[in-house]
Inverse folding.
């Protein structure tokens, strides 16, 4: 389990300027428990860049330097709490990059002995590390390719297949593309690791435990910020489970679409699109997540958007 922060702004911005200094300190302090590494991803004119480390974020000057530097107008920060049994090496730290896409994940997928069955063989060979998270990302990229670039359909396919074949507590993620930020909220309340959260002092009350996987976002005139800790807070909107927030990089226009139930009818391995026919039905969002069935999408504009 990990902590996520994603942003899309009108110009290059730093994490510190978007969260405020106190907000950044509060977020970074979570690395005392999410201490298995950190990573940042952002986009510049040459495409996505990724910087990651196996050290604890609060103890590394490079983290502080990058958190105060205006890296780009779209980016993410990840604090890692490694899934037990998965190595701490740099190749297992988030975010992961594939082509023009970058993703950081918060959650765990079990059993680990079956992780090698998740991807088609040609995609399994593209792994750099050994994590469930990187496989989740590559599975999503495979489905995106099969869906001809339809991100909404690829996300629904991925959640349905992985959710039916594995024990998953969360597929929450921040996904960055050249044109959009996607905040993916998909988690199973029945699989929240309550005992471990209590042991680490991360949650004690029922609401804190239930809220561990919550994602929330804040829209201002200059930025949209998504984060995964301490909600609800004044001025932030909780992103519903089984939904995706889409932020347009050029305009900061936001939209949401539903991805359907967290547990789906069993699918063998989603090797063929025919196995996915009918998923989502009336909830199926339109191409690239910009349309949905009646009543399934809401749009919000920041103060400066046309």
């Amino acid at each position: 389990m990990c902590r996520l922060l994603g942003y899309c702004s009108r110009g290059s911005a730093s994490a510190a300027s978007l969260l405020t200094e106190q907000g950044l300190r509060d977020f970074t302090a979570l690395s005392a428990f999410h201490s298995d590494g950190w990573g940042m991803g952002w986009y510049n004119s040459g495409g996505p860049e990724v910087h990651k480390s196996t050290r604890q974020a609060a103890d590394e000057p490079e983290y502080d330097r990058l958190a105060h530097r205006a890296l780009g107008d779209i980016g993410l920060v990840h604090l890692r709490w490694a899934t037990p049994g998965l190595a701490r090496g740099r190749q297992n730290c988030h975010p992961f990059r594939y082509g023009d896409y970058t993703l950081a994940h918060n959650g765990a997928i079990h059993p680990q002995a079956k992780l090698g069955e998740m991807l088609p063989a040609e995609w399994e060979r593209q792994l750099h590390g050994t994590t469930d998270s990187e496989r989740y990302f590559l599975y999503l990229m495979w489905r995106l390719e099969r869906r001809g670039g339809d991100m909404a359909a690829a996300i629904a396919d991925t959640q349905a297949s992985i959710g039916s074949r594995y024990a998953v507590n969360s597929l929450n993620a921040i996904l960055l593309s050249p044109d959009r930020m996607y905040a993916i909220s998909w988690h199973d309340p029945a699989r929240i690791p309550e005992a471990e959260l209590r042991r680490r002092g991360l949650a004690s009350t029922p609401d804190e435990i239930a809220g561990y996987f919550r994602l929330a976002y804040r829209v201002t005139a200059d930025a949209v910020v998504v984060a995964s800790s301490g909600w609800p807070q004044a001025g932030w909107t909780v992103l519903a489970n089984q939904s995706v927030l889409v932020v347009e990089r050029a305009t900061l226009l936001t939209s949401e679409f539903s991805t359907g139930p967290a547990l789906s009818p069993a699918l063998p391995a989603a090797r063929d699109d025919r196995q996915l026919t009918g998923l989502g039905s009336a909830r199926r969002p339109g191409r690239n997540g910009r349309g949905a069935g009646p009543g399934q999408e809401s749009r919000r504009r920041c103060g400066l958007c046309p």
